[in-house]
Fold each of these.
Amino acid sequence: MEVCDELRSFEATGVYRLDGTSTGATFLDPVRLLNASYERFRIVPSAYYSRSFGPQHQEGEPEIERPEKRRKRKRNQKPKSRELNPMEQVAEARHQEARPLLLKAHESLIKAKHLLEYISKTIKDNRHTLDAGSGSENNFVELGTSWRAPFYEITLCFQKSHVLGNEEGSFHAQKTSFPLFNSIISVEGIDEAEGEFQNRRYILPRESCFLMTDFKRVRDLIPCSPNQGYNLIVVDPPWENGCVRQKEEYPTLPNRYLLYLPVQELAHPAGALLVLWITNREKLRVFVEKELLPSWGVKNPSVFYWLKVKPDGSLIGDLDLFHHRPYECLLLGYINVNTNGEQGSNFKLLEGSQVIMSVPGAHSRKPPLEKLLSEYIPGPKPSRCIELFARELFPRWTSWGNEPLHFQDTMYFSEK
Ligand code: SAM
């Protein structure tokens, strides 16, 4: 594809395949990808890319490094003065194995000058202050644990169109209230709905569905009939991890609890692609590969990398920083699919590793993956998709977790 065509396609889709591509490298713009979900609203880029703005990231000003940060960085660098312990050695070997692929992918992004100019321009041009509106955001994690939780209701306002004779008629709003916690809420119809809860408003994409519960009630998600199972299952667990605990971004779960996620029961009988986000901790990787994925029926997973870059294309940190790699891993594998036999069907089997690059949003917010993975999803089309431990909604997806409405607050949107 010509450079201009590729950029035009990126503008429309938010997906840019780099160098044609022996590295399997792709640049994603989550804002463009998410905007495809909305008719009447759009995501505010500076609200999504909030970490690329803020006072320490003023244009032209180098980030001022505080002494305590410098001390911390020293501690985090690969311990040179002592031998690595056996776990660290395995982690370092994994990193060394991934390094050439990551460097090659990053090099192909740096060479795509027209893309980089385009990204930094669009992010810069869309700079505006995040309007948190009146009052503070709702903390669903806390509200869900209160004794009042069963009594909270969300009021959804759906736009209904009147058809007058043969003409497209006017719209009228229809309001309906639903229990907010522990019940499955679906937006039926082709337009987004607006939700009201405790003086905050939420934008719910068309055909989205969510269940806001604690892990203890995750089995409420199991479909009544297997044919309503899912073809893409994305899991982004709140892994135990010093960093998350320190920042108190969200509560974590003991890793072994994940063995009880009903992944098999959620998978469509015609097959499902499972995507699991993991951290770079070696102990976790061993648990996931040896126990968790086998217990979910996933064999021989592929590894993808999410390499995080700044709007100018540079990495968000030193690639070799021992405890703070500028990348995260995703393990992908199939459930109910024979990966050895002849497929002869409507999807491609995953082959090897790929590198996804994007400018990260809020802490732990992952880029949307459906578009990138669509050709690898088995089963009938359109695919049925679910995210476990979600903080946002997508059309035709079910989102489950203790705060799936978090990023649907209107503060992240503007009207088109
Ligand atoms: N995928 C999300 C995104 O891109 O924004 C991030 C998910 S974050 C890693 C993990 C989520 O799991 C957080 O929203 C957290 O509140 C939620 N969580 C933590 N403990 C939970 C529990 N016991 N039950 C349900 N969700 C829980």
Amino acid sequence: MKTVNILVEALPYIKKFHRKKIMIKYGGHAMIDEAAMDSTARDTVLLKYVGMEPVVVHGGGPEISRAMNKMGKEPKFIEGLRVTDEETMEIVKMVLVGKINTSIVSKICYHGGRAIGLSGKDSNLLLARKRAPHVVRDDETGERREIDLGLVGEIESVDPGIINMLTDNNYIPVISPIGVDRDANTLNLNADTVAGEVAAGIGAEKLIVLTDVPGILEDPSDPDTLIRRISVDELSDLVKSGIVEGGMLPKTLTCIQAINDGVSSAHIIDGRVEHSLLLEIFTKKGIGTMITE
Ligand code: X2W
């Protein structure tokens, strides 16, 4: 395609999303190296300069696990959620708020954006409560057993005020998935859930989840079976029939919930592909899976 045609193809999208909030979730698995993070930060700045209002939520699961291993702690997950004791919570804060958040903020600023780093504690952005213990049933004895996840939270409410104030003043908010409870305790939150809930809370037009797979696949072992567009109802059927499973399940449920809460479209795309964000937003074909009502 001629370079100029790329710009012409982008125009309807630039018009449609002018001044609209776009929630972008930078997944820990998508941020494979500094170059990938830098490229995504630059694309985020481009979105801002063509008139959209990007808001970033980042993860960092793999990096937290690496830090835990270095400190001699073994990471443990139950249904995708990290079991978080006091010491793990300190590591989570250090990695997410101290390292990843500041790194994304400085990369966005380097490319000319005005990024501000926040966690869910700032201005009570993410009020959370400790999750109830996970109940498992022993297959043999049928006995019920409770497993406490520790300092893991579920979101009670999102206060969009601080985010709106920042986007209204041309800043790009960058949010760490850490919540606060009513007694000021820190809680570890799943970053996908945070992205979905904040997207709904701020009335975002789009939720874009950057991860390490091409999107939702009909056959998870075959990248050629990518589903490019799907409605929430069709997707809910795929979930019920067990076609969407494993690591894709929480992301898929987050997208379904976001659409049901009023976000116009949700996208799952491969963040390892350079400029996947721009290809998804500005081209007709897109690059990943787009979910709509
Ligand atoms: C996550 C927070 C980071 C995250 C964790 O501790 O790994 C819980 O599991 P990704 O890269 O998006 O997976 N929190 C409760 O979600 O990062």
